[in-house]
Amino acid sequence: GWCPLSPAGAQTTQLLVEPPWRPAVLEDRVTLTCQGSGTTGATTWYKDGQHWGQKRHDHFTVTESGTYMCDRPGSGLSPTVRVLNDQLVLQVPAQTLLEGDMVTLRCRV
């Protein structure tokens, strides 16, 4: 037999953003939540590509702008999430968008 590299239903690590807009804006008091297999206490966080420590929880409120990722045992690294501290930002909903979808844009000034 053989085993595919990415079997159907494979667990992957996701980094959820609240409020659900991308890029995230620091002024919105952004909360990041790491979801994946493994225990909550094993979540490892990265900021700007550097190991940022192992937190007790799988979520936290961001206090610094930067690019964040998380790692959970058994499901690997999450995609990156940018948190900006810019004065003018055009945001899109933090969800998968397909060609032809109606989308609401948000301009933060």
CATH superfamily: Immunoglobulins
CATH architecture: Sandwich
CATH class identity: Mainly Beta
Radius of gyration: 16 Å
Could you state the order of secondary-structure elements as H and E? EEEEEEEEEEEE
The stretches of 5 or more residues where confidence is low (pLDDT under 50) are 1-9
- The separation of the N and C termini measures 57 Å
Class derived from helix and strand content = mainly beta
Shape: globular
Biggest beta sheet attributes: 6 strands, mixed
In percent terms, what proportion of residues is strand? 35-45%
User: How many extended strands?
Assistant: 12
Name the average pLDDT.
84
In total, the number of domains comes to 1
- Number of alpha- plus pi-helical segments: 0
DSSP helix fraction: under 10%
CATH topology: Immunoglobulin-like
GO molecular function, one term: transmembrane signaling receptor activity
Domain Ig-like: 7-70
InterPro entries: Ig-like_dom, Ig-like_dom_sf, Ig-like_fold, Ig_Fc_receptor
GO cellular component, one term: external side of plasma membrane
Write the layout of secondary structure elements.
Elements: E1 14-18, E2 21-22, E3 24-25, E4 31-35, E5 44-47, E6 50-54, E7 59-61, E8 66-72, E9 76-77, E10 81-84, E11 89-93, E12 106-108
Parallel strand pairs: 3-10
Antiparallel strand pairs: 1-4, 2-11, 4-7, 5-6, 5-8, 8-9, 8-10, 11-12
